[in-house]
Amino acid sequence: MSLARGVTRRSDVADVVGVTRRLIHTLVLALGAFAVVAAAAGAVPPRKLPPTNVVLPTISGTAKTGSTLTATSGTWGGPVTGITYQWLRCDAGGAACAPIAAQTSAIHVISPAEAGMTLRIAVKASNVNGATVANSVPTAAVAVPAPSSAPPAPTGTQNGRFGFAAGGNIQNLSSTDLARYLDGARAAHTGWIRVDLNWAVIQAGGPSSYNWAPFDSVVSATTARWMNVLAGILYTPAWARATGTGANTPPTDLSAYATFARTAVARYAPMGVHAYEVWNEPNIVNFWAPGPDPARYTQMLKLAYPAIKGADPSATVVSAGLSPYGAYGETNAERMNPLTFLERMYANGAAGSFDAVGWHPYNYPWGLGYATWSAWSQMSQTSPSARSLMTAHGDAAKQIWATEFGAPTGSTTRDVTEAAQAKLVTDSYTQLKSWSWAGPAFFYSYHDNGTNKSDVEQNFGVMHFDWTPKLSYAAYQSAAAVG
What we know:
Elements: H1 2-5, H2 10-40, E1 52-55, E2 59-60, E3 68-71, E4 75-77, E5 82-90, E6 98-99, E7 107-109, E8 118-127, E9 130-135, E10 159-165, H3 175-187, E11 190-198, H4 199-202, H5 213-223, E12 228-234, H6 254-268, E13 275-278, H7 294-311, E14 316-319, H8 338-347, E15 356-359, H9 386-392, E16 399-405, H10 418-434, E17 438-443, H11 471-482
Parallel strand pairs: 10-11, 10-17, 11-12, 12-13, 13-14, 15-16, 16-17
Antiparallel strand pairs: 1-4, 2-3, 3-7, 5-6, 5-8, 8-9
Helix pairs in contact: 6-7, 7-8, 10-11
């Protein structure tokens, strides 16, 4: 009996199959009818949507001037093919927000102009169907760092007319040599050190990468000794210039320079830096490849000026110190006379985009005597001169800053004796003192770069490479002491 109940008849299987087929057929008919009804009612397929925000963007970092904030993009639902950032400056309550010009990366350095305000990050996520924007919650109100606990500045020791142009190597000195350099400069009563903020080094890793440490050390060590810093912003990182070019080539997009300048100023203004030089010697190929272009340099200056002032309204912006080259009107594919270059800067609208004119009145080995081709004479004695051009364009009240000048003491026909270098120091600063339009003047340089007397570039210092003084050190110290 149990065996009979365990056997399934063929007729039973056929009945089950038949019932299943009839059910499937009925279901198909019902679905078809539903589709007809839905179509008649005007139903549409589900919409394709832009990304939807699931978790808001966030900001990390301390809300105080000079600090770096870092944003995350948040979490998004749906396909996302693009993410962009825009930093917003808001009132103390996080409302009335406005975009901050050129601040479109995930990193933002807080400028002094943002003290007391709050900041947000606006993140836009997009796909083929559109874009959605989500704002972070506001930061705390931006604080100003507490004043330094350093002792009061000594009086009657540092002379604001006197400076040393350090060149591009000072950030590579050991801590011992940096201290020796700055202590000796301070003992010479100098009021200024001109330092290169090398963009190509600081952002070598890309537009969101910063290596400030070597330059922070120089700036903090200089200001701790109550000397001012003139920061020259120059050299282009590889990612910002055309392939196959060098760091002396201006960036493909000049606004990238302005963005870096603003970031650098926002960092260094709280550290006491309030003077900036926009590039260096753009009238020669050595610093502006493939050759001088006053119109393009002027465009850089016009972008950099508001960027610097936006980060530090008190900043003094100096146009790039122009290199000596021939008499007025002399120019070729690689070099342009500085008067000609300045004239063309004005012709391209440079007026209003600098606070002082940068100039490099090198005159070695001939001294300060008048010559139409002398960059020293061209400041005020030739026709035209830098001063006459400035006056003609409404800039008579502005100064000329001699951001580099000097003479080498090597063994070539271009060099001078140590006694002649010392006389140049005394005579130069005496003449500059008599000219009301003369701003700080930076002697190049404090320390020799090497010991090879046949290499002109190694012998400009008032100190030998072994840190023993030349005659010019005492001459500089005496001149600066009396003002």
